[in-house]
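[agent] plan:
  1. take the single chain provided in the ticket
  2. run structure prediction with default settings
  3. attach structure tokens to the ticket
  4. add a short note for the reviewer (M.T.)
[agent] executing step 1
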Amino acid sequence: MLSIFLQISLALLVVLVISFLMRFLKQPLVIGYIISGIILGPFFLNLFPNKDTLEIFSQLGVTFLLFIVGIHLNPKTIKEFGKISLITGIGQFLFTSIIGYFIGILLGFSPLTSLYIAIALTFSSTIIITKLLSDKDSLDKLYGKISLGFLLVQDMIAILIIIIISSFFTQGNITNIIFINLIKILVIILILSFISYIVFPNLNIFFTKSQELLFVFAISWGIAVAALFSYLGLSIETGALIAGIMLSMSDYSAEITSKLKPLRDFFLIYFFIFLGTQIILGDVSNSLFQILIFSFFVLIGNPLIVMILMGILGYTKNTGFMTALTTAQISEFSFILVLLGIKLGHLNSNVLSFVSLIGIITITASSYMIIYSEKIYSNLSNYLSIFERKKIKENKNKEINYDYLLLGENRIGFSIMKYFLKSKKKYLIVDFNPERVRKLKYQGIKCILGDASDPDFLEDLKIEKSKILVSTIPDKETNLMILGILKEKNSDTISITTARNISDAFDLYKAGSNYVILPHFLGGEYVAKLIENIKENKKEYEIEKQKHIKELKERLKEGHEHPKTQK
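[agent] step 2 finished; step 3 output follows
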């Protein structure tokens, strides 16, 4: 047998070759990782006869991913979207379970097998969805935050069900075991909250002096909390998520995220490899019809259920559609649930092959659906109006012909907004952060809640009638859509967009943008003009200094903070 080092190295080599093929075919790399796992699994190369090391690497990838997800889920976000996440998470679970159960009965499965399969199909993969949304820079969008919220609710339900089923392996009253585990989680959260709010703020001085110390601290904290949960017989995934939430309000959360992403991506590769090796392609030739029916139900039925719930709760068809697409695949918890059922004798081993093939179909198809969600939505938009109520939570603009329009009131947009206010022109500020919109409205600023990546929202906004449009949103696809609308309407609007890099800036200029903001270059340009204008006049620098200090204090009051940078 090959050494562990050679096994890991050869696995990476296979992943590299398949990844090149996926990139050449313009397919998502996550599909390549899963295919690599199938190739490396027992049916082909069988590179990992002992999967212990691969499983540990996989678990580390899950831990780092959910740790970073937790950092994005600060208490403010949970408070903003807790209600919608709870309703969609529980609602989708109930409806999918009930409908899935009756589909199983109609397809000839026993009641117990139908129940297992139905519940397994309700869970969506937090790991895959988070990876795809992160790649699309959609974690901070409205639908991204809602998706993370209901995925968290789903994970809690999955963990609770797994705890209940696992209780059959142990002696004692099942209700008591569940109650004790919930008490354990509550006590741990209370202790960790005390550490997070009392101890961590006093460590800032050390982390600002040593970036390496911050890196070691972040890894140690995330792994330690996950290990504590595992030691107490609880879910490692839950521990990692809670560890991240405890750091979400800290001053260094953004820097921790940036430092851990490469580590997360490396270990996540092994998670997808492990998932691929677990897929058992047994004799399912007689079950292809049933597999296709259930796959269709997951790919179409789950999103339909979520879209209906989102529409009832007052969200736009765009937000509902984008959120719904994140439910169109099954989760790693689905496989765990089926494996537990087999160990208990509730299911036969063929069910794992059955669910595995559903997993391959739905994970592959849903990855494409999410990656190309904007294109899919543009083709289906006219047919989705039935899911949208007349009265919606996301503001639709009744007033048109704004002189100045700002999409995204953030660090860059703040200064632009201040000029709009001084200009005495007719203006409108659009932002997707509900808390920020409420604050601006309280200050008497004309501001509405909305997602600029929604073409219907932009259509309602009549962006082509504005004289100057500024988009501080760095997403290239969103800005290209904005420029496309202006071009289609033959608008004379002056468009100012934002790009992350020079390549995107060229694409935006080609699409018709009048000026492209490159945030990382702005500081140098400003300082060069400052030196050119005031040269060696120290008194003028003192005046600029006081103006800058005043502005920084104002930004600090508004809750702004400069992004953390690596040293």
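[agent] step 4 note for reviewer: The CA atoms of residues 369 and 561 lie 35 Å apart.
[agent] ticket updated
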